[in-house]
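Re: duplicated header lines in exported structure tokens

Our pipeline writes sequence and tokens for each protein into one text file. With two proteins the header for the second block appears twice in some exports. Here is an export where it did not happen, for reference. First protein block:
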Amino acid sequence: MNAKLISLVVLFVLSLAIVGVITAKRSGPEVRGQGFTLEEIQRFYPADGSTPITVSTTTRYQKSDGSWRKDSTCNGKTTLGFSLPARGVFAVDEESKRLNFVGDPQRTVFSEEMLRKEPGFVREETILGLKTFLIHSISTETGESNEAYICPALQGYPLKRVVRYKTGSTAVFEVTHVTLGAPPESFFTSLPNYEVNYDKTR
């Protein structure tokens, strides 16, 4: 059981980069978009067909300028991550009282026309009343396949992601609720201002 929990936590940590990987493959001018708040759940489906496991729940607050804050609960532990256009993307390490630098923020145009021209474009699909574009890709490094239902109206955030691993297991990230509009400014002014750690190996 402990090994399974450790694996799920590793999956959760790796999932934090999925959206960044998707957006990093695209280029375009910076653009202001719709602010929003959403709730997302991650489930892990074992290859043996046994009962799915809820890995994490996340609330994401995103401003029109691309700044975001993400509060996640995984295996009973709450973590905080955030992105500020002028500074970068950070994971908060409360134990060490520092900000671990994850990377540079990605701001790109996600027009419907651009998404339809993507090599991996499959189809359009409505999720939670919002139009999404299903983009399919396969990692040449890991062999895993990814399906991202990208929503242009939400600054390109995927309302659903399905990651299929070579082992036969599947991870599903699914947005369950969306509230349009700017999130409270206090969620950003209250972000910790710890020392920044730029060493990604620590």
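Second protein block, exported in the same file:
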Amino acid sequence: MDLDLRKLRYFVAVADHLNFGRASEALHIGQPVLSRQIRALENELKAQLFERDNRETSLTPAGEALLGDARSLLQAADATCRRVRGVAAGGQQTFTVGFMPGLIVTDAVRELSRRHPELSAEVMRTDWFNQTDAIRDGRTDIGYVRLPADLHGLATEQLLSEPRVVVVPAGHQLAGKEVIVVAELADEHLLQDPDAVPEWRDIATELRSARPRPASPVLRSVEEKLEHVAAGHGIAVLPLSTATYYTRPDVAHIAVCDLAPNQVCLAWEAHRKDPLIREFAEIARSGLA
């Protein structure tokens, strides 16, 4: 049985809205048409995807299982169309490498360009929120990904690990120390998801207090984190290369001897067999050696 991508798009829309009326408006189709398409998909899969009554719509376990794969399939289909249209319009194949802040990819990209002068090799800076989405939706062909990350549907190859450091305001009592232990940060406010730094989470004073944890803004970039650190709103934990790359006079970074290192891997869509992806991975590895 072949999955119909149109029906998958309809399914994802209903799953996102959990309301057939709102989903049909978003899709610009009639609600009866949408209901028929969902029933047809359920019949094809021989599985009920939604629980429906007069008050609410919810995903069944089968629907939950399909949702993650459906998103990946749709992103892969969109990425394929984008790549084909790009080649048809420009007559030149492009290969785009995603990279996280602090990671230098120039040498590897330059070497790929040297080997394939007909290729347009490009780079795209990513962040914690889009580093894998950019791979799935086709904006990048391969990415340097900092873990932890959602790697569903991606093939990966371990590349390197590096120490993590804590970034504090320049006038902080710890600034100037060469190395500390994480216990010295127990009374600090972390401007990140505590689960991103489990060593701090497990000893943090504010997380063991009966008082609610101070709210932290959603910080999408390194620059935003450093601005809040410099303003005295809290601390941040960053990979060493990132902290070094963004050196500025109003913050300081300190080695933390008992923080686990940050892992960096190469990632690409698992279903793609493009030889350029494998070649670039080999170039990236040999450059580290």
